[in-house]
């Protein structure tokens, strides 16, 4: 049973560089959704952009919390500061 749990933990173990890259990608997704929102005029597409931004924000927040939980700190704190604009 211990081996099974160890394998499961290894499966979900994301290293520092990977989680920072995922945070950066989530930030890009937020930016893209915001840009889409600014240029769309169809109500359905605007709604889609809103949902995309919400999903990207949720992903970003989850990854930041996960990084904090694992004691991961990015040298480039600009990632978070840009998000807070």
Automatic annotation (TrEMBL):
InterPro entries xrefs: DUF2508
Entry protein name: DUF2508 domain-containing protein
């Amino acid at each position: 049973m211990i081996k099974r749990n160890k394998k499961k933990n290894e499966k979900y173990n994301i290293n520092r560089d990977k989680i920072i890259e995922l945070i950066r990608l989530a930030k890009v997704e937020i930016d893209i959704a915001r840009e889409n929102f600014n240029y769309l005029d169809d109500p359905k597409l605007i709604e889609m952009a809103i949902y995309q931004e919400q999903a990207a924000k949720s992903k970003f927040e989850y990854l930041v919390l996960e990084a904090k939980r694992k004691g991961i700190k990015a040298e480039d704190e600009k990632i978070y500061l840009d998000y807070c604009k």
